[in-house]
Design a protein that fits this description.
Elements (H helix, E strand, L loop, with lengths): L5 H28 L11 H13 L3 E9 L7 E10 L4 E10 L2 E10 L2 E5 L6 E3 L27 E11 L2 E11 H8 L7 E9 L5 E8 L7 E10 L9
Antiparallel strand pairs: 1-2, 1-11, 2-3, 3-4, 4-5, 5-6, 7-8, 8-9, 9-10, 10-11
């Protein structure tokens, strides 16, 4: 029989073999290009944080808290804060726990752009220069060019770290180093010649910046930690000068 018994069979199988090979090739390409998150290529830590920053900055308003640990007993400045921030224009209203002229207490504060008003043992708000009290202008924490979120662009050695839980949310964390000047410019305290550890937490569900934890030489002879917590609000909040 011309061509042998196997000739017609091989000819019949060739198209099927070619089709299978094409499918396997496509699967191999897809497998090589996919990351571990739904088949998408995972972005770099810098890209993920940039996206998380942009999303937070679009929020109508932000619920904000600041906590500290490891502060020396005679530290002058802010140890805690709680309130609401707005990115446009940079504004804040709430309370600060502060040490002022040897007295520690809770201070009511309203800040809009460069103007800061404080109520501390006074019947009404008084305009102040917060730098005189070793405190930052809380409105400027929400300045997109120089505030909390801007620290991301000044962070060195960014790396993806562990996954942690923050209340009901799960956060992907990213670690890095901040130069002392970046920290001192923002919080008006800290060794400008030092280096600070920073950890950013990004919500796993909606990819939004949620926490910023900064640890280092805020005060001479001590290693202290400031934890900033930000949660977007659905509705805008009006913050006006008193």
């Amino acid at each position: 029989m011309p061509g042998g018994y196997g000739g017609p069979v091989r000819a019949t199988l060739r198209p099927a073999v070619a089709a299978v090979a094409a499918v396997l090739s496509l699967l191999a390409v897809a497998g090589c290009s996919s990351g571990g998150d739904g088949g998408a290529v995972e972005q770099s830590p810098a890209q993920q944080l940039a996206a998380a920053r942009a999303k937070l900055e679009k929020s109508p308003a932000v619920d904000f808290t600041l906590e500290s640990t490891g502060l020396p007993g005679k530290a002058v400045g802010v140890s805690a804060a709680k309130g609401t921030g707005v990115f446009t224009p940079p504004s804040f209203q709430g309370t600060l726990n502060a040490s002022i002229r040897g007295i520690t207490g809770t201070v009511q504060v309203v800040a809009v752009e460069q103007d800061v008003y404080m109520k501390f043992f006074t019947p009404s708000f008084v305009k102040i220069d917060p730098a005189k009290y070793g405190a930052p202008n809380p409105a400027q924490l929400f300045n997109t060019s120089t505030g909390i979120t801007s620290l991301i662009t000044r962070t060195q050695d960014l790396a993806k770290a562990s996954t942690v839980r923050d209340g009901a949310d799960v956060l992907n964390t990213f670690t890095g180093k901040l130069p002392g000047g970046a920290v001192a410019d923002l919080l008006v305290t800290g060794d400008r010649n030092g280096t600070f550890d920073v950890t950013y937490g990004v919500t796993r569900s909606d990819k939004e910046l949620r926490t910023v934890v900064i640890k280092g030489p805020f005060y001479a002879g001590a290693t202290s930690t400031y934890t900033l917590h930000l949660t977007s609000l659905a509705k805008a909040v009006a913050i006006t000068r008193p």
